[in-house]
Amino acid sequence: MANLHNRAPQTHPRLILASASPRRAELLREHGYSFEVIPSPLPEPVAFSAELSTIERAKACSEFKANSVARLAGDGWVLGADTIASLDGRVFGKPADRRDAKQILQSLAGTTHQVITGVTLLDAASGNRLIRHDSTDVTMRRLTEREIEDYLDTDAWQGKAGAYGIQDKGDAFVERISGSFTNVVGLPMELLDKMLSEFFPTK
Questions:
Q1: How many Å apart are CA 13 and CA 4, to the nearest integer?
Q2: How many domains does the chain have?
């Protein structure tokens, strides 16, 4: 189990999750982190330069969230994260509505796509930051119209990048993954451990 206080026993840094995502909070708790939640007060950006890659977009959104919360927090380490699904350079974020969710699932079904999470760790007091990303290949089986409609009826697609959650009913759609499972859930814990180790080395 990772614990931020064990990493820096003298400073006892304050860890702030800049997200209202219950899935990210659950992952942090499961891995033994002590933290508080301050969601970003600003709407997520929706327009991006065509020159930005999918990875750069995820990282930029994670930094945006961390920056917006750092202004409120004043001190502590702010954790921002943004997860997207990508297929052939096309980005699939959170669906706007049921119709959008259906179109996303129809696009991703029967493909191997990438789930990318940008992660920013920002010291609110000094402005020092680390910005990284993780990518996981997800192979989704072909879906029938009935399967998609039944899933949409559950509303489990709401707030999920790619319109599915691998940790709930959406896992029945996934044949295999290559990479971090927690990344697909919304926060790559292996990467976060490494980032915190850079800031708080044990030696």
A1: 7
A2: 1
